[in-house]
Amino acid sequence: MSETILIKYIDYIKNDKGLTSNTLEAYIRDITQFKDYLVKNNINDSTKVNKTVIITYLMYLQKDGKATSTISRNLASIRCFYQYLLNNNLIGEDPTHNLRSPKPERKIPNILTKEEVDILLSQPSGNSFKAIRDKAMLELLYATGIRVSEIIALNVDNLNLELGYLTLEDDGENGRVIPIGSVALEHLNRYLNKYRKEVLKDKKEKALFLNYNGNRLTRQGFWKIIKEYTKKSNIDKKITPHTLRHSFAVHLLQNGADIKTVQEMLGHSDISTTQIYSFAIDNKKLKDVYKKTHPRA
User: Fold this and answer.
1) Is 190 annotated in the active site?
2) Which pTM was predicted?
3) What is the per-residue pLDDT for 47?
4) Which of 114, 106, 142, 143 is nearest to 277 (CA)?
5) Which member of 37, 79, 147, 216 is catalytic?
6) I need a labelling partner for 157 at 20 to 30 A (CA). Which of 15, 99, 131, 202 fits?
7) Pick the CATH number of 3-87 from 1.10.10.10, 1.10.150.130, 3.30.590.20, 3.40.50.880
8) Would residue 242 show up in a list of annotated catalytic residues for this protein?
9) Is 196 among the residues known to form the active site?
10) Which of 171, 165, 156, 210 is nearest to 184 (CA)?
């Protein structure tokens, strides 16, 4: 790959492609690393590269431990380079044609054990507005498995505390009805009957969870709450607001819930998305069996 071609290509993507600064930096880094790989393997003419060379390079990245997303981006970078060469009549055929990106990895979500959930949910303590509100929020999140965006968007009207369920409107769907457990109901009633009223300034405000100013709690505010109680709990795991959603799903499946029911409660349109939680259970079972049976486990 000649320096002249590389310089002209970099100038092209800087001025004509309209890439974000991060994507631009990644593309330049990727194609520079690819050039170094070609030189190392005695391929000095980038116009002579064929499909086999590119596939071998992608396999090299995989063996080097690069993430699937990184390999996919590298292929996109290389494809952009060879389309540039093709459009400028520097090659007669694009060697990346019909090359597919590797399938994304199915990452097993980070979950908490039931004991760790108990520890985390016990962190809000006392009778202050913040403690009661946070306790109600965390209990509701674990009781229903709803998304952070959904719990922030909840209005008081979404709850039916007498019958013990909440309703959510899904885009293009009729909505979801999700049962609420007795523990979460207890803390929600306590919050609504007294503490929410303490900060409520506008009686027209429908938001369920309020901040000190009487306005709807923001997503950023909820993240801060999770970080605060994670630190206090001393649980040696990365905990995000989504962790309780993951834990909700896995604990239901562990206790015999069928995957279709869990899918409906989580609001997944595709059951394959829900099946990742089954993999988490199977993976844990495998580790437990190995520890119990292998003589050097």
Assistant:
1) no
2) 0.60
3) 80
4) 106
5) 147
6) 131
7) 1.10.150.130
8) yes
9) no
10) 165
